[in-house]
Structures are given as structure tokens and as C-alpha cells.
Design brief:
Layout lengths: L2 H8 L3 H22 L5 H16 L1 H13 L1 H11 L2 H25 L1
Helix pairs in contact: 2-3, 3-4, 4-5
Length: about 110
Amino acid sequence: MNLKEKWLAWSQIPAVRTGLTIIGVLLMLVSPALGILPGPGGIIVFGAGLGLALKYSEWAKRQYVQFKRKHPKKGRWADWGLRRRSARRREQLRKQREAQIAAQAEAQGD
């Protein structure tokens, strides 16, 4: 069993998931204090906390989905910032749809 498999098994324990979620929330709460310091430290710490919370908390995932539905443009930015694979896939599909629509409009215009 390699290190990745051990971590995956360990991260399925409810107490560990709760602890990692709490660490994520604490990082998000600390980020405004780091924001007053020069540099992008607060943003990076907030992103790390959000990533932990989203990975290990079902409640946070539901809240994130609701946020993205209400604010799709902000949700795209958040996905981009978190470097989510699903965000890259959706962005590629969106660009393909826009290209198809543009091609259809150009074909109709001829």
C-alpha cells in the first residue's frame, strides 16, 4: 500500500474528515488577518481553506453548489482558482458551444 492509498483510507475516517473541515474553516477565518499584510497571502490561505472544506464537508459542497447556481460567473472564477478538473472540462464545453453557435450564425449569414 503506497502513501496515496494510505491517505485515502485514512481520510475516510469521520473524525479525520471533521478535523480537516475544521482546519479549512479556520484557514478561511484567518485569511482576512493575513490580507492586511503585503502580498497575496490572504487569498492563498483562503483558497487552501476553501479547498479543504469543499473536499471533506458535504454541507460545504451543497453551499458551494447553491452559490454557483446563484452566481455562475463568480462560480466559474472560484472553480478556476481552485483548479478543478470539472471546471476545465465545463470551460472547454462552453467554448465549443460558443464556437458552434458562432459557426451556425456565420453559416446563416452567408
